[in-house]
């Protein structure tokens, strides 16, 4: 079977930046599983996997526009230091906050006296990503997986040992209740749809 829309794909991968630094790898976690054609992973990687079969290996280079987007200066904002109250503030810290674009992960980019510059860009925005991938499995998706828009692993929806949504994100599993935004790697629309579909299947995620 070859990778196509509505197949569940197991993928081992190593992700490097332009300089060859390893940013992420499936490694000891084992292959990640995702539902092909459901925006579980970035578009450029999905395109690269299309048509492969189990056992195939490939190098896929993904430009920013097919990954996490170009770096957007408009996502920089200045806030007064006093807004942080007693919270520790240091350059390089990341935290989640409600913004006018919804819940986002923000980076403290710079501190100028009493002013803090926050960066709402994805950490990989503007970067060309280099994936070395190996397809470990390809199977037809179950109907409930299609309805939810993500693969189910041992234990069903959001359960089991595989880390929930199987998209390889470490930013939270698909049914993380924090902010109700789901896994950080999905578009808002996709995760809303998914939350709507979870209810009757006993996934225990509270939606
Ligand atoms: Zn599910």
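^ Assign residues to that structure.
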């Amino acid at each position: 079977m070859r990778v196509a829309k509505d197949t569940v794909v197991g993928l081992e991968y190593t992700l490097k930046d332009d300089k060859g630094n390893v940013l992420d790898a499936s490694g000891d976690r084992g292959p990640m599983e995702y539902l092909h054609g459901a925006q579980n992973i970035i578009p450029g990687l999905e395109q690269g996997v299309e048509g492969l079969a189990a056992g195939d290996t490939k190098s896929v280079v993904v430009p920013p526009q097919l990954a996490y987007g170009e770096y957007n200066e408009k996502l920089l904002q200045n806030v007064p230091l006093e807004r942080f109250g007693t919270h520790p503030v240091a350059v390089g810290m990341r935290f989640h906050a409600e913004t006018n674009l919804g819940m986002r992960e923000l980076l403290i980019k710079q501190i100028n006296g009493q002013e803090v510059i926050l960066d709402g860009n994805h950490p990989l925005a503007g970067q060309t990503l280099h994936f070395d991938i190996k397809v470990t499995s390809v199977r037809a998706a179950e109907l409930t997986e299609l309805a939810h828009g993500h693969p189910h692993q041992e234990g069903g929806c959001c359960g089991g040992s595989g880390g929930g949504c199987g998209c390889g994100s470490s930013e939270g599993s698909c049914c993380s209740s924090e902010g109700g935004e789901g896994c950080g790697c999905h578009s808002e629309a996709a995760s809303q749809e998914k939350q709507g579909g979870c209810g009757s299947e006993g996934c225990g995620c509270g939606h």
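The chain has two domains: 7-67+126-201, 73-119.
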